[in-house]
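Most newcomers find our protein records easier to grasp once they have seen one. Nothing more is needed to start thinking about how sequence determines fold. Here is such a record, shown just as it appears in the course material:
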Amino acid sequence: MDFTDLLSYQKAFNLSMKIFEISKSFPKEETYSLTDQIRRSSRSVCVNLGEGYRKRRYLAHFISKLSDADMENTETQIWISFAKHCGYISPELSESLLDEVKEVGRLIGFMIANPEKFGSANPQKS
């Protein structure tokens, strides 16, 4: 199995691509702030999942990267809220995106709680 087979990665990647497309319509003055930040954080979820999966034999490193992915997912949630409150996306679109963010968060949370299911060589929790 490869990290791209992980449901958490697939859902995070799809969300990141949606955010990329949606953020194309954000105002130019947001290019180096909201647009850049929401794209970076949503992509970083995927990057941290991939990096963590490659180091999954090392429990502490695996969980640390999963925690980073969860943190970036939360950052994405916050940027979506800013986009809604600034009027760049509709409340309905915001709700839909936030539902996806929460789903990714639940999947990452499951991975953190059950690292042995993902090939962690040392499933003891400290």
Notes: The helical segments are 7-23, 31-54, 59-85, 91-113. Residues 59 and 124 are 8 Å apart (CA to CA).
